[in-house]
């Protein structure tokens, strides 16, 4: 694999921020803290933000067609309910901009099998029966690279688990620029990994990421949960019998306690050190009710607005249609230029 970080690039284009959430399953607290809340903070950063619903990525595993459209609308509703302004940020369904699929094929011919073989997420998702997985699941990271490079995004807010995919994107961009003698055509995007809860863990297992696919609903707080359900899930969250320590170092071997402290810090917009200062020496009998109250007060407005929007699908569809048109205005010229660089017949 090439070392994209050492490649000299002449890219001089504008700053752009891009990210997305997959259209599969119910959104949860991890999505809110790790993605939605961060997206909202970035939309006033001075760089245009492109936030898509990743429905092409979703079908790498089986999706019920009857539910996929509803899930797409739900994620769009969550974007808006979390504070994203469709007038400021471009919100759109990935599949509605055909250039995503076109560029993905071209980049499939640039990427190398050895690079994809190193992707740990495929190994995790395919398990012991990778031969039964879809080809799409294997090439998922290349489509992700196309998503990013199509808008010449310079910054991508990602969780730690997606950092490897962004490194692959940089390698693909570097190889394309080199192979086709197009220095600086694609930027080498930088990851934005920040905040106290970029990786929210399960409420039942501090070693597992909070996930839509976890069979236990008690493992996550869904954005559609009501106040009583949220409080009950926090109260039942797995912990240990020890009180919270005097310093952050005291959480090193306490995965569940560390996770709850990180969630509190992210919801309250404070550091984990400040949480420890506030609750040092107190047991979870005191900490959990405070966390439950904070979670309810933080998520209740988001949940209410999501429900309002989901009751008016026409409003969501207007946002998605407008966003897709705006996205295509940026994406189509880029893929046209890529075709020219590659040497495709243009008539």
Pick out its properties.
347 residues; 3-stranded parallel β-sheet; two-stranded parallel ribbon; 52% helix
Task: Walk me through what this model shows.
This protein has 347 residues and is mainly α. Helix content is 52%, strand content 7%. The protein contains 13 helices and five strands. The strands form two sheets. The protein has a three-stranded parallel beta sheet. Strands 4-5 form a two-stranded parallel ribbon. α3 (65-81) crosses α12, α4 runs parallel beside α13 and α7 (135-150) packs across α8. Mean pLDDT is 92; it is low at 1-7.
Break the fold down into its secondary structure elements and pairings:
Layout: E1 17-22, H1 29-42, E2 49-54, H2 55-58, H3 65-81, E3 89-93, H4 99-108, H5 113-117, H6 120-126, H7 135-150, E4 155-157, H8 163-179, E5 190-192, H9 227-236, H10 255-268, H11 272-279, H12 284-310, H13 313-342
Parallel strand pairs: 1-2, 2-3, 4-5
Helix pairs in contact: 3-12, 4-7, 4-13, 7-8, 9-12, 10-11, 10-12
């Amino acid at each position: 694999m090439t070392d994209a970080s050492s490649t000299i690039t002449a890219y001089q284009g504008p700053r752009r921020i891009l990210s997305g959430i997959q259209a599969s399953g119910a959104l949860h607290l991890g999505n809110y803290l790790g993605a939605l809340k961060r997206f909202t903070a970035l939309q006033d950063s001075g760089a245009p933000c492109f936030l898509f619903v990743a429905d092409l990525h979703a079908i790498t595993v089986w999706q019920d067609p009857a539910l996929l459209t509803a899930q797409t609308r739900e994620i769009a509703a969550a974007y808006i309910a979390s504070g994203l302004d469709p007038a400021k940020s471009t919100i759109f369904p990935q599949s509605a901009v055909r250039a995503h699929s076109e560029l993905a094929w071209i980049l499939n011919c640039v990427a190398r099998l050895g690079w994809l073989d190193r992707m740990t997420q495929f190994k995790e998702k395919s398990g012991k029966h990778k031969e039964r997985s879809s080809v799409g699941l294997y090439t998922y990271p290349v489509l992700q690279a196309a998503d990013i490079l199509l808008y010449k995004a310079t910054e991508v807010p990602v969780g730690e688990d997606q950092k490897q995919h962004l490194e692959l994107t940089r390698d693909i961009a570097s190889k394309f620029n080199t192979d086709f003698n197009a220095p600086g055509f694609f930027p080498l995007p930088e990851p934005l990994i920040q905040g106290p809860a970029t990786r929210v863990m399960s409420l039942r297992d501090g070693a597992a990421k909070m996930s839509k696919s976890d069979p236990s609903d008690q493992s996550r707080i869904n954005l559609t949960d009501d106040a009583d359900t949220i409080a009950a899930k926090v109260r039942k969250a797995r912990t240990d019998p020890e009180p919270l320590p005097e310093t952050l170092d005291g959480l090193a071997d306490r995965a569940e306690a560390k996770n709850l402290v990180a969630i509190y810090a992210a919801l309250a917009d404070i550091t984990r050190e400040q949480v420890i200062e506030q609750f040092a020496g107190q047991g979870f009998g005191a900490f959990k009710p405070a966390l439950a109250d904070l979670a309810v007060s933080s998520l209740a407005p988001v949940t209410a607005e999501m429900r309002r929007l989901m009751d008016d699908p026409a409003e969501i569809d207007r946002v998605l249609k407008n966003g897709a048109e705006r996205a295509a205005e940026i994406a189509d010229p880029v893929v046209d230029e890529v075709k020219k660089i590659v040497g495709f017949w243009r008539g």
